[in-house]
Amino acid sequence: MNNVTVLDEFIIKRQSEFPFASGDLSKLLRDISLAAKIIHREVNKAGLVDILGVTDNTNVHGETVKKLDEFANTQLLNALQVSGKCCGIASEEEEDFVVVDNEVSKEAKYVVLFDPLDGSSNIDVNVSIGTIFSIYRRVSESGPCRLSDLLQKGAKQVAAGYIIYGSSTMMVYSTGHGVNGFTLDPSIGEFCLSHPNIRIPEFAKTYSINQGQFLLLADGLKQYINYCQETDAATGRPYSMRYIGSFVADFHRNLINGGIFIYPASTKNPEGKLRLLYECNPLAYIAEQAGGKATTGQERILDIEPLTLHQRTPIYIGSAGMVQQAEAFLNPTAE
Ligand code: P6P
Q1: pLDDT tens-place string over residues 246-259
Q2: Which pLDDT score, from 0 to 100, does residue 51 have?
Q3: In the prediction, which pLDDT does 21 show?
Q4: Alpha carbon of 5 to those of 26, 39, 196, 289: distances in Å?
Q5: pLDDT tens, residue by residue, 85-98
Q6: Distance CA 24, CA 322 (A)
């Protein structure tokens, strides 16, 4: 045990490196990790208890809410509302933001946005899914959290990360000083440091896109996909196409091995499908902290000034060299 670094120990050690750190962010990260352990427990026995399938509810996006979605959302809301370090919450499953105004929280300095269980369509077929979270310092001076505290551009994040419930459960996060991955050891109930200082390779040979939408795509993107499929030994093409249909899982694979994930604008999804605030911003933050890149095909994801909580954005994310390559096909006349 003495050569294992558990998450709590890592968080506290990192906090000690920043003399002005009050410990509030550390506690928030630990609260999120606790909720993740509870979600892990339900996800891992989903086939054995009555938590698969759908509820009678639909969410703000008109999507049928899965029982596990609702369970994960409740766990995160509960954890953050008693944390004392969070004054406001936005969730994919909540139409409006949640003001946390109990005595211990209303003056708290952080807000948290999350997708409680991304990849819902995969829940009932045992494919990896994930929780994605994004943390900002509030911008309002005091009093109840305001919408402006949540509508901040991604570059203002103070921390972001995800938990992937797959062959193992991993928590991957950054507080702006690199990216570290922790694997849950269920026998001791601890997230253990397993992937220190993750760096994403500048190039690799995997691209991820829903190829079924090829005919709906812009010409430049079609040309990039054709480029990926051409045979060229010098650049290792044709690349492999890997697409799980779970953003966290596709992203995590590319973070570790290198690759590019694309969910573009199309005639079916003019703004793309993925949500800016609680899917694209946190993973863009992780990608950049690991040496990768994340853009809309034109602009840096983290520079987008949000207008609404649930707005969507196209996203090209992963190995920096591959994102730049795709952009060159999208913007052929750019300098
Ligand atoms: P499509 C899952 O429903 C999700 O929100 C992301 O996790 C995933 O990357 C995407 O949608 C898949 O969308 O249209 O390819 O099924």
Answers
A1: 999 999 999 999 99
A2: 62
A3: 74
A4: 16, 22, 10, 21
A5: 999 999 999 999 99
A6: 37
Q: How confident is the model at residue 103 (pLDDT cuts 50, 70, 90)?
A: confident
CA distance 166 to 178: 23
pLDDT > 70 fraction of the chain, expressed in percent and rounded: 96
Strands (E), the chain: 54-58, 64-66, 86-91, 98-99, 110-118, 129-137, 159-165, 169-174, 180-185, 190-195, 206-208, 240-241, 260-263, 293-295, 315-318
Amino acid at 27: K
Q: What is the dihedral of CA 177, 180, 186, 188, to 10 degrees?
A: -60
Could you read off the pLDDT of 258-275 as tens digits, one per residue?
999 999 999 999 999 999
Rounded Cα gap, residues 53 and 191, in angstroms? 28
Q: How many angstroms separate the Cα of 214 from the Cα of each of 8, 9, 219, 224, 263? A: 45, 47, 10, 11, 11
Angle at the Cα of 38 (from 36 to 39), degrees rounded to 5? 65
Decide: 118 and 246 in contact? Cβ < 8 Å. Answer: yes
| 84, amino acid identity | G
Q: Confidence class of residue 13 from pLDDT cuts 50, 70 and 90?
A: confident
Pocket test for ligand 1, best of 61, 66, 69, 121 (most atoms within 8 A of CB): 121
Ligand 1 test: best mutation among 63, 68, 69, 118, most atoms within 8 Å of CB? Answer: 118
pLDDT at 88: 97
What amino acid occupies position 98?
V
Structural contact between residues 296 and 286, judged by C-beta atoms closer than 8 angstroms: no
Task: Give which of 255, 263, 248, 246 is closest to 211, Cα–Cα.
Answer: 263
Beta carbon of 269 within 6 Å of any ligand 1 atom: no
Mean pLDDT of 321-329: 98
Cβ(266) – ligand 1 distance below 6 Å: no
